[in-house]
Amino acid sequence: MSFSVSLLGTSLLSLLLAGYLARKYGLPPPAPKIAAIDLGTTFSSIGIYQAVTGITDIIADETGRQSIPSVVAFL
Predict the structure, then answer these.
(1) Are residues 40 and 24 in the same domain?
(2) Which residues have C-beta within 8 Å of that of residue 63, sequence separation ≥ 6?
(3) Do residues 21 and 57 share a domain?
(4) Among 46, 50, 49, CA closest to 65
(5) What are phi and psi of 47, to 5 degrees?
(6) Residue 56 sits in which domain range?
């Protein structure tokens, strides 16, 4: 029992140390990307904001339109 606890503790400490060293000496954290969905009553669209560059990309459908008609169906 004590061997498995010490092995688990050593593994956890190793992971924490590796994460600290990676952050301090190089590997920057990944840049956040924010996705937004606009569900409008007539048209809908999806955009991705890249926080590092400040650029917003609007995703187009297969025909190239960036605004997709909103559809409601009654069955």
Answers:
(1) no
(2) none
(3) no
(4) 46
(5) -130, 150
(6) 31-75
Number of domains in the chain: 2
In the numeric block, the tokens 């590796």 are attached to 18
Render the chain in DSSP notation, one character per residue: -HHHHHHHHHHHHHHHHHHHHHHHTS-PPPPPEEEEEEE-SSEEEEEEEETTTTEEEEEP-TTS-SSEE------
pLDDT in tens, 20-39: 887 778 777 677 788 999 88
Going by C-alpha positions, the residue among 22, 50, 23 that lies closest to residue 36 is 50
Task: Output the pTM of the full model.
Answer: 0.50
Q: What percent of the chain is modeled with pLDDT above 90?
A: 21
